[in-house]
Design goal:
The structure is a homodimer.
Chain A lengths: L22 E2 L3 E6 L1 H23 L2 H9 L13 H15 L6 H21 L8 H6 L9 H4 L1 H19 L3 H16 L18 H12 L3 H12 L34 H18 L2 H17 L31 H18 L3 H14 L17 E2 L22 H10 L6 E4 L4 E4 L4 E8 L2 E9 L6 E8 L5 E6 L9 E4 L9 E4 L2 E6 L6 E5 L5 E5 L9 E6 L2 E6 L15 E3 L5 E3 L12 E7 L14 E3 L12 E7 L11 E2 L2 E2 L4
Parallel strand pairs in A: 5-9
Antiparallel strand pairs in A: 1-4, 2-6, 3-22, 4-5, 6-7, 7-8, 8-13, 9-12, 10-13, 11-12, 14-15, 15-16, 15-23, 16-21, 16-22, 17-19, 18-19, 19-21
Keywords (chains A, B): Hydrolase
Organism (chains A, B): Streptomyces sedi
GO molecular function (chains A, B): hydrolase activity
Chain lengths: 668, 668
């Protein structure tokens, strides 16, 4: 069966035929080897494979069983426990949609999905309602009466997304039927005043919006898009104001202002970004310019004023939320793994909607750093929040020690990582809306096939990226009509890349660079080769001076990877000194480490550091860390030390020790 | 009636006769004019005077009335609403103990205290138990079964402290009888296993410990000290572990390790510091060296690694807690007003216990900055958390805008400010344990009388401190035997102060400087004068380089005051630029502002600032705030601007605008 007619290669965010988009996700990608193949193999064989056991241990499946049995007591865990099941189902479904999945595991996943789908169908009420928390723990509460905190629509959204993934991957309607009944029930329940539908409100946690649009795409029922659009418009006064700080404030769930008027991203980062993914989806389907402009404006605000170097977002622990502009504390970077995942999902929708390279440029950074740090190299344990700095002496203070953990009381992140990594091939390539360009957004060894210029084209991609900058592409099939191959050039390589076509530098007229896209238009033939080499020279990076947390510091990057220095890699230092006493000598440059004992076999980098000259304490107040002085701190003295930096995604895979992404620079 | 036998001049923390202390609070101080007199006048006539109305509006008094009437429904507010009443009572009682209090207000306060004391007596159960939350809202819960979160002992502690203050100030036993019945009930209830008392545990919120010691001092019943010592020893495994982060972790309430083994301050800052005040009190009464060493060690950790420049403590919003060493984010400084108050209370106890000047040195800073910022200049509104930085663009993000507020849902801070300011004269002077030295810890215009060298000495202090550095002291009464006048010299003035005795520089043998104390030993005569002039030259201050949040920055101080720059005082800047785009040129020095329109008539300072050169964004990623570069940021160009700085305590008394304490320095 040719790939073009297979249901495998299912991908998230499939705009409908008449949607207003610049690009379409019609490319089918396999990732067969290299960096992402390894991460995805571990995701499938460890993380996803463990899922059912973890969902059993944590009680999620028992809750659904109780709901199916009509029990009204014994509920375990947080109100949205069902969503962990739904996200695992979505992950398993995308994994089934990947032709590289091991057949034995595919069979196992098929069985488990079927089993869980039956459980969900059994638990679903005749009305279509399905939520084990309200059915088991709170049967006395009328449905959809506690929308600010109850997560009923959020939970429904994750079920719908799982169902869409399952149907796209397999054609099986078992979950889709449950989801459609639930969505129809929502459609009968929610609507504006005067619509005849009883409830005019929305969920405190966005998610239903993007789910409904995807359901409409899968089923062709555009009423779901209308309902999503209604929900989007409902934020901005949906809930009574309770306070001005933390989760009580309206902005926590983006309810402070109508979405289209929001000047900036704010509040709970996952809520904000799921909402924006929904906005991008609705704008895609309706073609509404104002909604698209809102999504663009808020993406820009997120990227330019509220993002960590890793692509992580969310500066506050208290409300898991965005901070003020340029407020990006490193020790308390919340940078929730789920928020990074949501940023990738939002970014991909914007990439399709606009065709602009910047969305996938940021998404690449987010994937390699802010997402991937959330799961251990062995796929077994997770981080929920992702600081960019762990201090010397943190062990003296009880608590707050970042540790990778097998599962969480609120276990949103682990199955979210599973579903993103399982669906990753869906984020790697697209075709232009006119059908004449094949766009490669992210680089991974494997195959890309897509309809281009009226025929099926197939490319083989071979690369050791991100460890090596060379990306080799070979045309394995093509039609006769000319078409354009668009290769995304990351911004850090835009001034320095090399291109070979069939082994030779192409003429200047044979290619064009357009705002992040390298465009090669020609008549392709089977056997043609293209080699793009990106600039993997390690580099120092500085922050906008308004990022106070990075003042006087540099970070180190190589390719898409942000690096960090971990205490476990430090050379011996004088007694009482640690990572926070070092400065980096940028003039000495950055080397490639020869160590082969780094976690996951990563390529390390080497830096020249020195012990900072500690200022003499005030003789009259040696107990006070501040002192009167008009002069700048003294330059460091003493011999340089060699520091080893490892990719940020690989940190905390050895003993927990201090860590820094931003390193004070000896040059200020 | 001579002052020495009057019950007026009541002060907190009065060690018993046989306590092991270096100093005793036997000085009686009035503050009649100048800075603190004005702040205390507003505290009495606005803040304290408004208290009963605020406690009525918020429901606190209704809760107690319901308890008195035996009602078991209708409770309003958080579980520890009673403590706001208790703290107001304590404030009113200290105010009554101040002979400068307006007689009409004193009569009004006496009536109100009597009325509230009758209400409390009516609400008290026959057992001695008294807590309106458990009596009205949770009558079905056995007492002291929810100690981790119930605040029963914390609430009892505040009642006991109010009763001690009331009895010390007036000799009236109305509150003391209620408190003693309650304390006796606690003594019958709590004890170690095998003691025959039914409950072997402690409160999740320390406070009872210091209260019980003070009650023992007031009543002479040393069993209360024993109970306090038992409670202190109970932390470190009192409660089941529930989590590793935030309020769920044991360290949140200092339960992670036995107190005497704690390596560092941690967890909820108010809990930690109330606990340490109790530790200092118990060490004072028992003479236990290990407990004293613990208090010293943790004070040093707090001061040297976990204090903001303002003296504020608590770096985390999530758990209102201490952060990791040197983790002191400016925008998210929690620096709760109550924590600063607790630090002053703890510090005073350490000052008495050890006789060391450093405790009052830090307390002065904390009082003028971290405490006083918590109440508006007009005494009408309050701040709960006290950031050191409010960003440009903060108004674009909904919520998290610091605003002074008339009262809070959890209104711990306002009455805490009231009681501290009402008792402030009690923190200003002491006598040495040998009775031969009169120690002046803080400077304020007024009188100080104390028994020294076997006779009553009286000093008149006249000063416009902190606006002027001259402090004039005149001996108005003294015995014939020589004694030592000890004047505390703040660390910032220790290398530069001037002294006149009877108008002339004293001989080098006439004085001695000893670690923060300027000691003048002589035979004093009535009419003798001493003039100490402290160095009020404004100064730049830098932080230990491990304080990442202040890297490359300076702050400005003058005397005990920390200054800040507020957006409302900025000169006109080019469009789109704001406070966060400025750097300070330290070489240009600091001037005294001639503006007379600053809030509260404060003395402003002037600085030379420049607009920072904004780095050119990466042409390939103008949406990204980071860029590859090996060079340090460019020096600012353009004309210098004059910036006005105001004392930090006076900020946010005009329209809410950006604010910075730490200002980037042009010199790095």
């Amino acid at each position: 069966m040719p790939p073009s007619t297979s249901d495998r290669y299912a991908t998230p965010a499939r705009p409908s035929e008449n949607a207003t988009v610049a690009s379409r996700p019609s490319a089918r990608v396999t990732v067969t080897d290299g960096f992402w193949a390894e991460r995805r193999r571990i995701n499938a064989r460890v993380s996803i494979a463990q899922g059912p056991d973890r969902l059993t241990e944590a009680g999620n499946l028992r809750n659904l069983r109780r709901a199916a049995d009509g029990e009204t007591s014994g509920y375990e865990g947080v109100p949205f426990m069902d969503t962990d099941v739904h996200k695992w189902l979505e992950a398993a479904a995308w994994q089934l949609g990947d032709p590289t999945t091991d057949p034995a595991q595919a069979a196992e996943l098929t069985d488990r999905i079927g089993e869980f789908a039956r459980l969900l169908a059994d638990a679903q009420q005749p009305s279509g309602y399905l939520n084990s928390y309200y059915q088991v723990a709170r049967p006395e509460v009328p449905h959809f009466q506690e929308l600010r905190w109850g997560h009923e629509l959020y939970t429904a959204g994750h079920l719908i997304q799982a169902a869409v993934a399952h149907h796209r991957s397999t054609g099986d309607r078992a979950l889709l039927d449950v989801a459609t009944r639930l969505a129809d029930h929502l459609g009968e329940t929610f609507g504006p005043e005067g619509s005849g539908r009883p409830i005019d409100s929305v969920d405190g946690h966005p998610e239903i919006e993007t789910a409904l649009v995807e359901l409409a795409r899968e089923t062709g029922d555009s009423r779901h898009v209308e309902l999503a659009g209604y929900f989007l418009g409902r934020y901005g006064g949906a809930f009574p104001t309770r306070g001005t700080k933390g989760p009580a404030r309206p902005g926590y769930c983006q309810d402070h202002v109508p979405l289209r008027e929001a000047p900036a991203v704010t509040g709970h980062a996952v809520r904000q970004l799921y909402l924006l993914a929904g906005a991008a989806d609705v704008a895609t389907e309706t073609g509404e310019a104002e909604l698209r402009a809102t999504a663009e404006r808020l993406w820009e605000d997120m990227a330019s004023r509220q993002s960590y170097l890793t692509g992580g977002v969310g500066a506050h622990h208290t409300d898991e939320g965005f901070g003020h502009p340029y407020e990006l504390p490193n020790e308390r970077a919340y940078a929730e793994t789920c928020a990074a995942i949501a940023a990738v999902q939002f970014g991909w929708r914007m990439a399709l909607l606009t065709g602009e390279a910047r969305y996938s440029d940021l998404a690449e950074r987010t994937l390699y750093n802010a997402v991937l740090c959330g799961v251990s190299l062995d796929g077994d344990t997770y981080l929920y929040d992702n600081p960019l700095h762990v201090r010397d002496g943190h062990a003296d203070q009880e608590g707050l020690r970042p540790r990778r953990t097998p599962w969480f009381t609120c276990a949103c992140c682990p199955p979210n990582l599973m579903r993103l990594l399982a669906s990753l091939p869906g984020y790697l390539a697209s075709t232009s809306a006119d059908g004449n360009t094949l766009q490669i957004h992210q680089y991974a060894t494997g195959t890309v096939t897509a309809p281009v210029a009226g025929a099926e084209a197939a490319l083989r991609v071979t690369t050791d990226y991100p460890w090596d900058g060379r990306i080799a592409l070979a045309v394995e099939a093509t039609g006769a009509a000319p078409w354009t191959l668009a290769l995304r050039v990351p911004h850090w390589s835009a001034d320095n890349w090399a291109l070979l076509v069939n082994g030779a530098e192409p003429a200047a007229t044979a290619w064009r660079y357009d705002d992040g896209w390298l465009l090669l238009h020609r008549s392709w033939a089977s056997g043609d080769t293209v080699e793009l080499t990106l600039d993997l020279a390690p580099r120092f990076v500085r922050a906008d001076p308004r990022v106070d947390a990075a003042r006087g510091c540099v970070a180190v990057e190589r390719g898409p990877l942000v690096y960090c220095v971990e205490g476990v890699d430090l050379p011996a230092l004088p007694e009482g000194l640690g990572l926070d006493d070092l400065v980096v000598d940028t003039a000495a440059g950055i080397g490639i480490s020869e160590r082969d004992d780094l976690p996951g076999g990563v390529t390390g980098l080497t830096l020249a550091g020195r012990v900072r000259a500690r200022p003499t304490p005030d003789a009259h107040a040696p107990w006070w860390p501040y002192r009167s002085t008009t002069t700048a701190p003294a330059e460091p003295e003493g011999e340089p030390l060699t520091l080893t930096a490892v990719p940020y995604y690989a940190w905390a895979n050895r003993e927990v020790s201090p860590m820094r992404v931003w390193l004070p620079s000896a040059a200020g």
